[in-house]
Batch of 4 targets.
Target 1
Amino acid sequence: MPQSPVILKVCRLLILIILFPTLSFDLTQQGSISLEHQVKAVYLFNFAQFIEWPEKTFSDTNDPIILGILGKDPFGLFLEETVKGEVVNGHPIIVQRYANVNQIKACHILFIHSSVNTRMDNILNDLKGQNILTVSDATNFTKLGGMIRFVKDANKIKLQINLNTVKEADITISSKLLRLSEIVD
């Protein structure tokens, strides 16, 4: 069966990210979505494979894993194309967008755009106690109580993880992902 160009592109990015986590990317514009945001979209998809939520998170074995975006969407359709047709542990992955935190009813991985940075404290407070993996590229995100922060260092995307916040949300992160990350308080 022939593969679509998008799937091949995502597979190449996945292989690069997994095999060469410290590889430098030229994070400049490529079309309407920068390579930086394409790499972050692939990371978001991969997080679903390296995270365990409490059993009560899914009411049915076929419930989707909801990958949400709060605030400005830097991914365009690339994120949907990345997760289209993908299934992790029997759960299909879908993308939802939210204008504000009150719209979030069910979400498993939430990318919070830095455009909401002035409200970040309130947003993270509202999400406290929920089993939602919070991810952002906002400055001080993990220090404010966010779980995973994308850090751009030269031409690399690195991960910072606030393991205390992750544990408080009763989420388990695979040691494979933890090894590639900087653990912060």
Target 2
Amino acid sequence: MWWDLDQLIKQTKDMVDIFKYLQPNKVGIWLFDCSSVHQGLAVDALNISTMNVNPGSKQKLLHTTTIPTTSPPPKPGCHYTQSLLQEMVYPSMHPDSKLHGKAKGMKTVFQEWESVWDELNTRCNGKVVGKSKCCKKSQARRMQRGE
């Protein structure tokens, strides 16, 4: 593992002790940005940063996952997909032989969640896949290109 849990606990305890010393009789509120923890994920873990919009390409083959129970409820007459297992790689028996064994893209993953895809379509007026106007990564790329 790239980090040492005992060391993290020690540093957190030291940080609290320092705060108590410098700010007696004060209440501290601690917020931790755990984005660096993504480096500790398994190579085949579901991480949207490593996925493409469309299937295949150079993205990693991800392990089977479970559709979150926090997904929006399905529309009337639609499938209930919450808590179902979701394959992240196309099976060898898929009708399109070009997709056999290839990683699914974000678009396919969301479409399989159905209720998430429906919610995204509603919020984005039917244009789910495209350039984001609020995503920090998209903004950074636009700035690099001088847009």
Target 3
Amino acid sequence: MAEVLVAVMILGTMVISLYGGFSASFGVVRSCREELRATQILLRHTEALRLCTWSQLSNLAMQERFNPLGAAENAGGTVYGVTVRTNAPESVPDEAPYRKDMRLVTVTVWWTNFNGDIPIVHSRQLQTHVARYGQQNYSWGATP
């Protein structure tokens, strides 16, 4: 009888450990998927900046869903907030003649997920420089 109780205790410990491992693995996979989606959103908005004319560069704020196709049914999953900010570039010296023709663009994405009932806010940020006479003039044939 003692051997059976010890075997059941060992088996119970192994099953609980197995379920704990599954739970942790699903949490890590979910977190990685959210991080990857945030990176996709950052890159998409940064690449869209390449096609903007100088006059179209402005500060923006918007939201996107983890699954854009589910947004119509309000089942798109995690909501990502996106902000695009344009400023004068600090890395370019004030006496540089081209400073007025450049902007520092910062794209920030943030989202919230939960660990039980505890909200955890995540954010990612990407910065790039944009020039007045940059690639957008060659892509669209636009004038600045």
Target 4
Amino acid sequence: MPGSEFDKLPRPPCAEMLDWKLVEIDKPGKRVVVSFTARQEFVSSSGFIQGGMLAAMLDDTMGSAAFVISDGRQFPSSIDMNVSFLAPAKVGKIFGEGTAVQLGKTIGYLQGELRDEAGTLLARATSSARMVTTEVLPTSHKLHSD
């Protein structure tokens, strides 16, 4: 949620490249909405956004859900990710909805979807992740001073 404590964290270079922005937090629903900007540089020879870029967006969407829903106490390290590409993505704004289906002490189950500005479902993914406590992160990347 813009203006939240999450805005205080430094954004990694990949989030900068994808123009990642936190749009909405739904804690009861264990869900976040984020946005990305798919740039011309992301286009493949097909003329549409390359699938690997969409997978990166999905990974950042699902990871954001886990981090936000855990109140910044855990971050996910992907074990696996299954992606289904459903429609071609064009240059422009893309919205990701990520859900932390279940977060345990060591494993999390996540899901995500990407849609364009018209609401067309572009891709969907599920992921299993190793949940790592933020205690192992550099101090500048922590929300809590545990």
